[in-house]
Amino acid sequence: MTSTHRVVCAIDSQMAYALGVLLGSLKRESSKAFRVTVGFLEGSLPSRDREAVSSLAAALKIPLVSDAITDPHLWIDADTVALPGWDRIFDVIDATSEKQGLVVAKRGNSPGAARDSMLFNAGVLGWPQGTRRNWAEPLRQMETVDTQEQALFNELYSDTAAWVSEKYNTLTYRIDQLDPHDLPSIIHYAGAHKPWHLGRNLAQNCVEYGCPWSAWFAAEASLTTELTAGPLAETITALQRAALATGHLRWRRDHSGLWLVKLLTALGPGARVVMWCLGLLKQWVPRGTHPLH
Ligand SMILES: [Mn+2]
Q1: How far is the CA of 183 from the centre of ligand 1 (A)?
Q2: Residue 199 Cα to ligand 1 middle (Å)
Q3: CB within 5 A of ion ligand 1: which residues?
Q4: How far is the CA of 173 from the centre of ligand 1 (A)?
Q5: Residues 11-64 pLDDT 10s
Q6: Tens of pLDDT along 134-166?
Q7: Crossing angle of helices 256-267/271-279, nearest 10°?
Q8: Could you tell me the residue ranges of all domains in the chain?
Q9: CATH topology for 5-186?
Q10: I need a labelling partner for 45 at 20 to 30 A (CA). Which of 30, 52, 111, 238 fits?
Q11: What is this structure's pTM?
């Protein structure tokens, strides 16, 4: 049994602000103390961002650590938000054996899940006590895919893993299919377009409709209310502005949401008219995949 929960994630400069909002939500909704390890590739996180993340963590009273990880921990993508009950997953991690190797969340049988053959999404992973399986050789033998580490973990662990409810890694397009009496504890904004790409003057529809992005905007509002009174106000504003400009546009179908969000944000005040027109079509568009509702 671990005394302090451990959470691990990795970011580059594109995800610095997202991590700030996630840290705030983890802290607010935690039931006991935890520490966070943030990984980054050499050269991918300027010292300005490293300092910003460190000062945010310090202000939130979250210990940041950076040593090699041998003890049980929760891996979490920075494009997630924590909601009440998120740290109950540690009960399962503590009860999972080295033989099982990994704790993963179920994926629903939605059309979205059929996009690839992977049994679990790697955005939230519970690593139990014990040594990890050798990944170098399997990785060499695998064909190259878009989400390589996800394919690798599926290959290595899906036969033995301990499974938890989808509520610990709720992909946004699944929101409509969930049990309203068993709400998500972690929402994962997988996909190219993210809540922080949307100009906040356009967030209103989404918040009123209670779309999955509204949970992220609520976490952002809590963080800024909590921290902008102090010396971090400028840091947060700078991170927020930088985050708005992140995201690489590509000519691919799964980037259509990002194109829409970028276009609306660039339009400024005129975007409201466009959104009203597009809103007429929204009953045919699944929730959680765009800012229209
Ligand atoms: Mn992700």
Answers
A1: 19
A2: 21
A3: 77, 79, 123, 190
A4: 13
A5: 999 999 999 999 999 999 999 999 998 888 878 889 899 889 988 998 999 988
A6: 887 888 888 888 778 888 889 899 999 999 999
A7: 140
A8: 5-186, 194-284
A9: Spore Coat Polysaccharide Biosynthesis Protein SpsA; Chain A (3.90.550)
A10: 30
A11: 0.86
